[in-house]
Amino acid sequence: MVPKQMTAVAKTKSAPGGELITVDVPHIKPHEVLVKVHATAICGTDAHIYKWNPWAQKRIRTIPQIMGHELAGEVVEIGRAVATVNIGDYVSAETHIPCGKCKQCLTDQQHICANLEILGVDRDGCFAEYIAVPEKVIWKNNPSLPLDVAAAQEPLGNSIYCTLVEPVTGKSVVIFGDGPTGLLSVGVAKTSGAAQVILVGLDNFLMNIGKKMGADHVLHGHNDNIQQKVLDFTGGYGADVVLEMAGTKETITLGLQVVRKGGRFCAFGLPPSSVSVDFSNDIIFKGLTLYGINGRLMFDTWFKAKDLLQSGRLNIKPVITHHFPLTDFEKAFSLMLAQPRASGKIVLYPDPSKMPKS
Asked: Is the full-model pTM beyond 0.85?
């Protein structure tokens, strides 16, 4: 029996923080399903909204609004027009909801839909006991998949898209950024046959996780001569592939310097302001292939994530470091935002009994 009300974490005012509130359980539309949330992971986007930084102030249009977009749970109700999802299905969700009508959607680019709607950004999210989700973005999970791993498939998809937009087999890969998405990319690159994976980060706690995920070399962004080290590791050529996942002026500039001529540069990190680039020397004369990475490919990336996880060759558990009841969201965000970092991916549980046994 679905209750009439639920507990949720919401942005209730234009200021830093969030609030634990009691609200009505969502009423689903004909093409929606109601998911009972068992696990929901905190993302960097959630941190921006929680801190209420300039990006969040411009981007969030509705307050109050429930936060969160990474989830795993069980379908408890289906709309009258739903055809592919059943009550009891164990699911996650693609958090980018496409319109299905624009040029991008009609040319197999739904992930960059012109009218894109995002869970927890443009509509109520999943930091709650229940969430209404359109059928078209529901992803059915293998029943054996742990809740925390299932909830982290969305950021894993970012890492897979960024890393494997072209093959990395036999190539040198440099990853700038030791946040969860960068750490997941280390595992994806190594599992997919990269000859060597070089992680550039700033936090010892996170860089140690990078080693567990398979990084061949871990470099400190402030203490190491990154450009010289990458040249040394690559026979003087530079990296075949650079994944820029930190989103700073310094890492973007350095990433363009260390990628070899004819190499590939993937831009994923979001810089807080505009960045000047030596377009002629760093891109044109280098013959560089440049990709802008936004979200995940629907649903190609999800199938890759499923197969990699089921194969047993990719283990993302080292990246998931902490578990909290949803009611302890303030402690979770405080830990996530602490400097130096002492956490990787943090997962919240509306029902604490669903938390992994320590």
From this structure: yes
